[in-house]
Amino acid sequence: MPLESRDVVSMVATISTLALFLTGIQICMKIRRQGNTNNVSVFPFVASDVSCILWLKYGILRQDGTLIVVNTVGVILQSIYILIFYLNSYEKDSLHRKMLYSSLLVFPVLAYIKFYVDELDTALFQLGLICSCCSVVMYGSPLSTVAEVIRTKSTASMAFMLCLANFLVSLEWAFYGYIVMDSFIKVPNIIGALLGSIQLTLFYCYSGSSGVGHQAGGSVSTV
């Protein structure tokens, strides 16, 4: 496929992903308005931050400018969101534990890749596998509400626009992975698109109930 096609797909995927990252602003504005973090989970921010850090390292090893740009911005934005959440949280001890668990996941992986893996191909394979698993988990996280949707026959607990955005972004990154011939990018995003289609199907099946969901939160996978 010609280079121009790669550039177009890269640009579209980058813009779409950055726009998806910016949805966190709406959640932070809600936190600031109410002066606390009630009914808001920090998990999407922490999970996205972890994912961005790992994918950023993968992009650096792979020398992929698209991954580097997207995930650098992602790390900055998610870190800001976490800081806003922290400053407005009354349960800082719980947040400290979550941050500790996240650090225990990220830093050992980065240290292992940096100091214990000598060959680039091995580092790319091992880190790519970890990044792929993170992406699949994050794409599937909204499925935790599927049982509730089916039980109540209402999609009020899901956010239609977020589900649609995740579906489209995963398709774009799957296509990008195909172009650059990277299965670690392609495969998890194919799975993400399939999981996204399941979520969208629920809106079709229960379209007559309470309309579009109102939940603003959700994990965002970078690739």
How would you describe this structure to a colleague?
The two termini are 20 Å apart. The protein has nine helices and no strands. The chain is an all-alpha fold and 223 residues long. It has helices at residues 3-21, 24-34, 43-62, 65-87, 92-115, 120-140, 146-152, 160-179, 183-205. Helix content is 75%, strand content 0%. Helix 1 (3-21) packs antiparallel against helix 8 and helix 3 (43-62) runs antiparallel to helix 6.
Search tags:
globular, mainly alpha, 223 residues
Work out the helix count.
Answer: 9
Low-confidence stretches: 210-218
Largest sheet: none
Span between termini:
20 Å
Beta-strand percentage range: under 5%
- What does the average pLDDT come to? 86
Approximate shape: globular
How helix-rich are the residues, as a percent range? over 70%
Radius of gyration: 18 Å
Record field, number of beta strands: 0
Order of helices and strands: HHHHHHHHH
Structural category is mainly alpha
Outline the fold blueprint.
Layout: H1 3-21, H2 24-34, H3 43-62, H4 65-87, H5 92-115, H6 120-140, H7 146-152, H8 160-179, H9 183-205
Summarize the structure.
The protein is mainly α. Helices cover 75% and strands 0% of the residues. It is globular, with a radius of gyration of 18 Å.
